[in-house]
Amino acid sequence: MTEQDNAETLCEQVRQAYRERSPLRIVGGDTRAFYGRAVEGRTLSTSEHRGIVHYDPVELVISVRAGTRLSDLEAALAHHNQMLPFEPPRFGEASTIGGAVATGLSGPRRPWAGAARDFVLGTRVITQEGKLLRFGGEVMKNVAGYDLSRLMAGAQGTLGILSEISFKVLPRPNATHSLRLTMPIDEALKKLAELGRKPLPITAAAWHDGGLHLRLEGGQSSVKATHERLGGDHLEASFWQELRDHSLSFFQGTGDKALWRLSLPPNSGILALPGIQENEVLYDWAGSQRWVKTSLDAETLRRLCQEAGGHATCYTAHQDGGASEPFTPLNPVVAKYHRNLKRELDTYAIFNPGRLYAEL
């Protein structure tokens, strides 16, 4: 892995933008440009700011520069039989860890291990004045007052530029086995509700193409016993990487339909969506996250999702047929707090303006 500290160059670029009141389009590997609204501004790339700053395998802590590629970081962790527990998606070889945290996206293990922000211990952030400030630290309880580090997860660069992130990492499981149980979706949801009430070593659960897919991870005896109990057909472990990275055939070529992510409460039933066929829905996170290919209008889809206690995000907002606003509109009270926070941390709107919402 090539290491390079480019922090001062990035700080100077921000200082110049602050002086000129000129917006910046912040990118790492630029593999997540589809997620959120398009940004107009001068490109500021963190891709040359990369490398591992500190790694203590015994303490399960690693600090890494934001431009470090996910593939390089995960390879370094795998060398010590460790991993990022939240399974950040890669949308290309150029995917960076800064982009993974900025978007706050997590993979199939999310309901059982936690989200990206749950494993962020601390950050170094470039502020609007071009200052490099540290927030948090390298232990779970090293924060006094407001924790800005976790706020950066999912902010998509609208509040500052991630320069460095410290993570809690975990050992890889001793044993793993993936299986497929052939069953319709209604049976699969009942099965998942039943399994969720038992102490089983499940770390991923998805329904796709007429089958319930499960991943078992943990101790050898636990995984073996659960596998023998559930039965099913063998499933290649690569299925979970393809699901994580949206490289399954389901995600390829949505045509004139938009791709939506529906986030619903645990144990939600089948959501009645007009005009949507069974093969146009993929269930992940034991049914709490659902991928839908549809030409249904955004207002109707979001209303149905909200009635079920969830929300909907459009992943193809930049394409024909996509929603004009990828994220669910904020209610007036929440929007006010978002605007106040943006104004405090980015007074002149130089950091990815409009990436989340037009007014932010």
From TrEMBL:
Alphabetized GO MF terms: FAD binding; glycolate dehydrogenase activity
Family annotation (SUPFAM superfamilies): FAD-binding/transporter-associated domain-like (SSF56176), FAD-linked oxidases, C-terminal domain (SSF55103)
Keyword set includes Cytoplasm: no
EC primary class: oxidoreductase
Residue ranges annotated for the FAD-binding PCMH-type domain, each copy included: 1-172
InterPro entries: FAD-bd_PCMH (IPR016166), FAD-bd_PCMH-like_sf (IPR036318), FAD-bd_PCMH_sub2 (IPR016169), FAD-linked_Oxase-like_C (IPR016164), Oxid_FAD_bind_N (IPR006094)
EC numbers for this chain: 1.1.99.14
Protein name: Glycolate oxidase subunit GlcE
Pfam assignment, any one: FAD_binding_4
Keywords: FAD, Flavoprotein, Oxidoreductase
